[in-house]
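Handout, page 2. Input:
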Amino acid sequence: MNMNKIITAFALIAVILASACSDDEPKDAIKEIKMSVSSETTYSYVNGSEQLVECMLVMSEDNPGVWEPLRLNGIEGFTYEKGHEYYLSVKRRKLANPSADGSDRTYSLIRILDDRYVTEHEIPTETPITSEEDIKYYDLCPINKYASANGYIVDENGKIIYDDNYGSSLPSYANARIWLEDILDKEDPNWVKFESVPYMATYSFVLSPLTDEIRLVRNGSSGPMFKDVVPENEFSHITQSMQSGEEIRYALILANVYKNGIQKLEFTIRKQ
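Output:
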């Protein structure tokens, strides 16, 4: 075998080995998916950030039924406008080698399938609600679908923290939210039914210890705003008039789009 043939053979082997190595390298997985974007935003620690960041709330077919935070610029080619609900077709890229402090996926807009402006004007209930007994529950309700924080601590400066073992701070009074977590057991025989629109917590009836009035507030995608449940005059009472250690109890009766009750939740507010 002459030298040229030997060189050619080695070159061929090198090409085959390089090709094999290339085939073994992990590749990004790309898929077109549908994604819903809420008209509401939230604040979250995302991708290792040390400070709360305002985020969109998105729900995709990757995790149906769950609203998740995504940075406002988290969809390439898409400009989010608060107050609008979107239904998008996006290209989802699962990264084969994500950075240690970043997300394992990226999104880019393919097209906007629906863009709907959500008005903020509240529609009053058809029947006046003057007591808890006036609230009618929907079919098969109350059900144990949602969970929320059991309590909050407020200091004289209006700082709000969770009343638990961690004591995490909430955003400011103007931006804090009472988070509702969907805890419905997927083994529940009515799971599909209870995850449909008539069993979604669209509104909350607020039962306050500081007034006899029962107020109806609209929930965002993940729960009502703190300021809507505890209006400014009541928050001022908590920060300025309540004594250290004093505690009051609120109740929320979560209601569906028809303003029929789904479930009752209670929480406390304690003065630090």
